[in-house]
User: Fold these one by one.
Assistant:
Number 1:
Amino acid sequence: MYHRYDALIIGAGGAGLMAAAQLSNVCSTAVISKLYPPRSHTGAAQGGIGAAIGNVEEDHWLWHMFDTVKGGDYLTDQDAAEVLAREAIDAVFELEHMGLPFNRTPDGKIDQRRFGGHTRNFGEGPVRRACFSADRTGHMILYTLYQQGIKNDVEFYDEYMMLDLLITDDGVCNGIVALNVADGEFHVFHAKAVILATGGFGRVFKITSNAMAATGDGVAVAFRRGIPLEDMEFYQFHPTGINKLGILLTEGARGEGGILRNVNGERFMERYTPTLKDLAPRDMVSRFIWQEIREGRGIGPDKDYIHLDLTHLPPGALEEKLPDITDFVRTYMGIDPVTQPIPIQPTAHYAMGGVPTDIDGRVTLDASNTALPGLYAAGEVACVSVHGANRLGTNSLVDLIVFGRRAGKHAAEFVKTANLAALPAEPDFRARAEVSNLLDRTKGEKAADIRATMQAEMMDKAGVFRTGEALSEVRGTLSNLRARYANVAIDDKGKIHNMDLVEALELGFMLDCAETIVEGAVTRTESRGAHMREDYAERDDENWLKHTLAYKTSGGIQMKYKPVSITRFEPKERNY
Amino acid sequence: MQVKIKILRFNPEQDTKPHFETYTVEQEPTDRVLDALNNIKWYTDGTLTFRRSCAHGVCGSDAMRINGRNRLACKLLIQDVGANITIEPIMGFRVLKDLVVDMEPFFAGYRAVKPFLINHDQPPAGRERHQTPEDRDRIDDTSKCIMCACCTTACPITWTNADFVGPAAIVQAHRFIYDSRDQGSDERLAIMNDKSGVWRCRTIFNCTDACPRDIKITRAIEQVKRTLLYDRV
């Protein structure tokens, strides 16, 4: 089936819906999403959205910018970080005006709490910057934006999965191909502008906070069409996932006073980061948790977890400010966080890397930021790069709103003057071939085995600690899995709601993500932010203060580099 | 532990009516019911179809009838439901395949209650609208709703009256009617007062029992009824 619009938005999480809010009243717009919009993973974000609105103590956007740059271990593009920190303030007010029910101070303003790596006066101590709605801030953002979509009569194509991106021989993006999951039909969406807002790929790892739908579809589809992927080696592990399950327990829990303790009951973070303690950035806290475990100070029969202790928080704090995580701990662990410490381990959480864009969300192709006309990306799928080598807590939500809005606004202008480039004769041939390959193969192996091996290997060898040797091993494993993937056979041969097919396609996307993560990690022979190479333990600004760009070529993945934008803050050693 | 799971299956491309199929899987007692379903799908029968995403009770995808009660498969542990589990799709909406039902009527009910802030005043420049913590608290419970449809499809009125907007839509209306910043209460209350609105509710409490977010849904519905009767928001 054929559809024509001015603009398409792929994905209906925070970034996609924010872009839709800019476009839907201006030009014909469709939002295409693999899930019903309220199921998007933005809804799982808990703790807050950072903005220097200074409601409870002095704060400045410049401090927020500095924290973002330092938190990113100076790989953050500073022009982008400045946009993020400045526009966060208006973004939060805009969300409030749309109806978001933030928690309030006694005088009726938006309340704010502490979060990891957010400081006053360039690192003096923690600052209350995270605007929050209990511990379901992401849920409230997602719903508020979806409500705007309904109010603005946005056209939604729910449960449509993007399989291909259409780019002309002249290098202009003019649409996508999607599979309607409900009936298995192919749909060609022809448009002047496409905004990728498909989210991340935490499911590449075994233990993750990410939803099952977070399989990197947009990242992989762009990569397959020749668009480079930036800084894929930087993958964030959130320090506090529920042990073994990976379910997120917000950093806001430590923002409200929670403490990490080892087997001796020691508040070990005091030793590592004396100023910020438990509120150091996530890359550091995750690393130090593993260090405690490796040195024998883990807890439990296998000494393989750490405690998050909330038992000393004032009465009512958990129910009022952290009700959801309290519920998770009771449901999934059978313990009561009011009286018992919580077993936690770092959990794969967020991709700093992704599809490169400029500060207007335009997808760029090279070191000089040449834009691909008609193609935008925003949110976790994108790499602006505003998070550098390590994202600060709350900044993902800021990113969605600020850059979702900028991409939407830019696209709205772009479609006014752009021509609709003609489609080739069979725009959906690649997507059809890929699907019929999976449907037609009657003998082969199950996708689940390949996926499980990938997730376990990525967790072990491309996680918080990496070495050249382990990365080479996982690279070999992935190449083997790639060969096996070509032989996957699915049980379900039907057209209607074929989730067997969907999961097999998603595995293909995840393999692209895993391969580029590992390729970047092998290439980058230094340690920076979330990328910790034990064989190259130091940050190496001389050689590596630059972004990686991974290109898919017929000879494998080719690496190129892009300079970091440095405007206000010279790289320094990173202490907290 | 060994778990026997009986699932109501229906493939519209092959079947004329639904039938039960039983699977035996090995699970940890602390696994989620969703883990068992994934286990079946990934290693035994890839044709088994259900929606799922976040796997920890916040996205609302995997509402299903588990041993006769509406639950999220990802928020129910095997040890809490036992070694014999019967799973059926939620009731009241057309089954599209296995445990996947047509959610369109559900979202139509949601859209019908104008689920967005209505405020005709220009918002203040460079700051938020103010709201007291007490006013914010009035919508705390209903703003937790994840639209999983556990409540609506547990309601006998929904099963028999396709026009009823259903408990979830009323919860969503409540979230705005009692928001001190909203000016659309009259429009929304008129919808609630309509023949497909709150007066269809017979105070059965199934919705409250079914809610995986522990929202006091019956109380929210009663509050809307009282507002309609006594004209007090």
Number 2:
Amino acid sequence: MPPMNLHWKILGRPVKPVAFGLMFSMMVIGWAAFADVGVLGKNFLADFLGGAALMTAAVLASGWYRSSQMLAELGLLMASIIWALRFWLIVLVNNHSISTEGLWLSIGWVVIASGSYLLEKADSLAERPR
Amino acid sequence: MNLDPLTLALAGLLTAVQTAILMYAAYHWPAGRNEHDDEDHKHSKPST
């Protein structure tokens, strides 16, 4: 079964719900970091994570706009890394507390980003001449 | 917040391991068609 797209289009390109959702989540992490309202608080580390998240959002956006498979895969992999890093930082920095909802939400986002990356990668590997 | 270098290094290491497993999976266990897709489709009924 070939990869499927929604019929809805923006700027002549199909709407990609997972990529858009991840892009939005990256922008939220970036905003929370620079506005110092995130779970990691006000420090250099949070700003570093926020900067990387905004870069990831840019990669996902350009991958969608240019219809680039390579950028789409890179963006999904970067999003997976950002969410995984956020998860581990919360676990380790937040005094090993499991009562932070950000920790549990991070697990869900890691699954979404990692799974989407695996599916995108499988598409490009399947198209490769054998 | 306890932001000592060891904690940061550990978080980075754990993330790197997780990413390595993901990339290994992408190349060695690529997603594919479910073997039962055709069979399931044959017996599927309209959802309405």
